[in-house]
């Protein structure tokens, strides 16, 4: 956590293993964004070279006691000092990501185990002073880099270091000497930083982290107590949240966070009591996500004055600070009572509007999403069809699939099977950015039913929550699709999907039975024609398009109102439409380049409209 840059003391189980084997996806920024950030920070090259030298030296002398003192010097000069010299959160994140690339998580874990075998500290042997100093430097380096880099935080848990430091909490929690207190503090900071990485949720629970952390809610140090409460908030679910944190403790935590946050945004180093403004903003967003049925956390946070410091944090030059501030505002804006207060806050809308044009996609998307919810765009939806309305008109609506990008493969497979069964399907297969939220709102408005792919990532995604909110506003029926076997819906997502029947696509062996049940549940809603609900029909949709006459194409363009908006499709043929749809599947980048360069499509709205029409051409 952000207690990350504190000075060192002397120097100014089988299920778990299975999870570790399965958990291979890198976290944090994607490769494109990271390359963009690295290009913007060439000054990091020297720090990365020096860091690599230190890690390689540790790897080469992993079990050599004679080199412990040399490793202390390398940790101090090549890693610890370089980290402290970095000015921005983004620079520190990139350094942490570099540690992932060179395998430092495994090296640090194995070296801490080696030092533990030597004895962390001993009053009898003077040589253990060096062992202790080295132990503290390695652990503080882990604290610092897990604070700034989610990727490194994930690798640390996969490497087994979380298990090591949880054992330290068990063994040293009740000891009063300074050495034990420092060990407990660094262990808590490491576990807290790692708990903020979504991919660590199950890994930490496999290590029984929750019951092992519970005693620290009563710790005498208020910082440790707050770190514990925040950690538990990240790794507990609705079943044990009330058990873990009492209402009184939660109030103390919220009060402490807000006090620290106000101070952090008003001091030069953007830290208070060891916490960075960024992690406090992240904690605020987490509290706002893990809200009660009545959204009590959101209300309390805004009532207690969290919005002004968040708006101030948006002015920070560091991209990661901006991202967390905007994300927290977006999360808080999902409560109707909060929107008015945020809109009235001086500078809030202006800064969000400015960040909407940020060159960094995540910041731009978050600002766009926050403005979308705050300004109410997309909320004037057409009236829903009544039960008595003509069945043909209701069948002209589509089936929408709402999912988090991590589960795209399952969602796309479901969409293809539904199309073969005769349904119109709306699904975003291209991860389009920014104003796609407006297209999503329109897609919900025109949906006969929305299939929600339930996962923890979906619950945490503000974009997915915006779609869920649109379902609620339009009273659009929702059918829950289970795509993550171990996750049970929490908070707002539990309210959205209710206690209805789930269709389980989380394991391939049950997918066929789930599809048959899903088709039966959808019924005639979103049906494109009168074909039987046969999910085994393997007819190739492109075959029909190749046989389309000019009249068929004209009818399709009229149905989706394309002629007026898109000039370049006036003379298109059925065979060309079939080719374009095949191109979209096999070479999507070329497909979209062709539309923009050769078909008269000039913007995202037209691009979305044509792609949707092509997907639903029958």
Can you tell me about this structure?
This protein is elongated. Helices cover 61% and strands 4% of the residues. The longest helix has 21 residues. It has 34 helices and 7 strands. The N terminus is likely disordered. By secondary structure, it is mainly alpha-helical. The chain has a 5-stranded parallel sheet with strand order 4-3-5-6-7, with helices on both faces. It has 4 domains: 234 residues, no CATH class; 131 residues, Leucine-rich Repeat Variant (Alpha Horseshoe), CATH 1.25.10; 148 residues, Rossmann fold; 74 residues.
Nearest-integer average pLDDT: 79
* Largest sheet: spatial strand order: 4-3-5-6-7
The percent of residues in helical segments reads 55-70%
| Termini Cα gap | 54 Å
Global shape: elongated
Radius of gyration based on Cα positions: 27 Å
Helix and strand composition category? mainly alpha
Report the strand count. 7
Biggest beta sheet attributes: 5 strands, parallel
The share of residues in extended strands comes to under 5%
The oligomeric status of these chains comes to: single chain
Poorly predicted runs of 5 or more residues: 1-29, 123-127, 378-395, 530-543
The structural domain count equals: 4
Question: Given the structure, what is the number of helices?
Answer: 34
């Amino acid at each position: 956590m952000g207690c990350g840059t504190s000075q060192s003391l002397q120097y100014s189980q089988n299920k778990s293993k299975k999870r570790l084997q399965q958990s291979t996806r890198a976290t944090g920024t994607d490769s494109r964004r990271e390359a963009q950030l690295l290009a913007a920070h060439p000054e990091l090259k020297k720090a990365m070279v020096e860091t690599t030298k230190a890690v390689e030296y540790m790897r080469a002398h992993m079990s050599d006691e004679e080199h412990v003192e040399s490793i202390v010097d390398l940790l101090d000069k090549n890693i610890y000092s370089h980290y402290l010299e970095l000015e921005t959160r983004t620079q520190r994140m990139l350094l942490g990501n570099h540690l992932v690339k060179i395998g430092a998580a495994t090296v640090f874990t194995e070296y801490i185990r080696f030092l533990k075998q030597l004895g962390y500290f001993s009053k009898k042997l003077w040589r253990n002073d060096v062992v202790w100093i080295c132990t503290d430097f390695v652990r503080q380096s882990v604290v610092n880099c897990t604070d700034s880099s989610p990727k490194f935080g994930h690798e640390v848990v996969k490497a087994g270091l979380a298990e090591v430091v949880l054992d330290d909490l068990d063994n040293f929690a009740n000891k009063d000497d300074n050495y034990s207190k420092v060990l407990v503090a660094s262990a808590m900071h490491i576990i807290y930083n790692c708990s903020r990485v979504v991919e660590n949720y199950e890994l930490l629970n496999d290590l029984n982290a929750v019951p092992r952390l519970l005693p620290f809610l009563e710790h005498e140090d208020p910082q440790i107590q707050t770190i514990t409460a925040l950690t538990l908030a990240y790794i507990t679910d609705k079943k044990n949240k009330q058990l873990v944190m009492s209402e009184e403790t939660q109030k103390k935590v919220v009060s402490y966070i807000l006090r620290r946050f106000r101070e952090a945004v008003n001091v030069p180093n953007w830290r208070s009591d060891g916490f960075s403004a960024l992690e406090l903003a992240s904690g605020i967003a987490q509290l706002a996500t893990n809200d009660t049925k009545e959204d009590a956390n959101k209300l309390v946070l805004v009532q207690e004055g969290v919005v002004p410091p968040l708006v101030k944090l948006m002015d920070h030059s560091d991209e990661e600070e901006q991202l967390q501030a905007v994300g927290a505002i977006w999360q808080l804006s999902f409560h109707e009572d909060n929107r008015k207060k945020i809109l009235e806050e001086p500078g809030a809308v202006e800064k969000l509007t400015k960040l909407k044009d940020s060159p960094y996609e995540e910041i731009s998307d978050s600002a766009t999403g926050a403005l979308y919810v705050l300004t109410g765009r997309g909320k004037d939806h057409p009236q829903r069809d009544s039960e008595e309305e003509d069945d043909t008109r209701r069948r002209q609506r589509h089936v929408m699939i709402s999912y988090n990008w991590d589960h795209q493969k399952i969602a796309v497979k479901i969409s293809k099977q539904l199309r073969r069964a005769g349904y119109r399907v709306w699904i975003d297969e291209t991860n389009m950015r920014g104003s796609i939220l407006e297209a999503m709102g329109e897609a919900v408005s025109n949906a006969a039913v929305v299939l929600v792919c339930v996962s923890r990532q979906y619950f945490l995604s503000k974009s997915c929550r915006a779609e869920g909110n649109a379902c609620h506003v339009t009273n659009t029926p929702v059918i829950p699709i289970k795509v993550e076997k171990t996750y049970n819906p929490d908070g707002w997502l539990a309210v959205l999907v209710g206690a209805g029947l789930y269709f389980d696509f989380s394991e391939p062996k049950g997918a066929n039975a789930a599809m048959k049940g899903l088709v039966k549940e959808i019924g005639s809603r979103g049906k494109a024609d009168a074909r039987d609900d046969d999910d085994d029909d393997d007819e190739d949709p492109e075959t029909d398009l190749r046989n389309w006459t000019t009249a068929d194409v004209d009818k399709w363009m009229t149905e989706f109102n394309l002629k007026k908006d898109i000039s370049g499709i006036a003379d298109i043929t059925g065979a060309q439409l079939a080719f374009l749809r095949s191109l979209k599947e096999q070479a999507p980048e070329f497909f979209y380049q062709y539309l923009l360069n050769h078909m008269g499509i000039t913007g995202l709205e037209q691009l979305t409209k044509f792609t949707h029409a092509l997907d639903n051409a029958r």
